[in-house]
Design brief:
The chain is mostly beta strands and about 190 residues long. About 10% of the residues lie in helices and about 40% in strands.
Amino acid sequence: MSDIHYVHLLQYYKVAYNNEQLVHFQQASESPYFVDNTITLLKYINILGQVYKGKGESGSRGSLVQAKFIGSTGEHIIAYTGQIQYIFTHSFTPPPTSSSLIPLLHTHCRPTQLLHNSQHTFAFIKWYTPENDKSREYEHVETCFPTFSPDDFQCVLPVHRIMLEVATAEHTTRRKVKKMLVIPLPKKQYI
């Protein structure tokens, strides 16, 4: 993984597991709790019959997506639009915390039964800059700016948070402002 993107992966794990003790792989000798920089790239991933790919795989088809984020109050689900740059797996087992060991006092579980899955599948996504214009909301079309937001730890997205593929089209307003129309492409699920 590139050094630039690795910093975001490390920060993702620190936030996801609420653990600031995790260190950079180059400081692994200082702490047993480090995040490795080795990843395995995937050409695509199939989630419930929908195939998602990085932008380099056959153009942009399957790379433009909306993903869900839970609002700060926990009540609202907010969808953000972005483009998958690449999909990858990463192995990481978080260090045990005192709170994860409390259930052991009241059950007959072994500590190994409380470990998280060490194999994680992520998409590295560049997010389009959101726009607050809701004028097309009832047409099921959203708008955003055709530029990417700066990269941060939220670019590292667990693939289970991908909601659906989207189509995009550029639109220039009467005031010559370029915007991007985002049209959701939901897929029918056969069960």
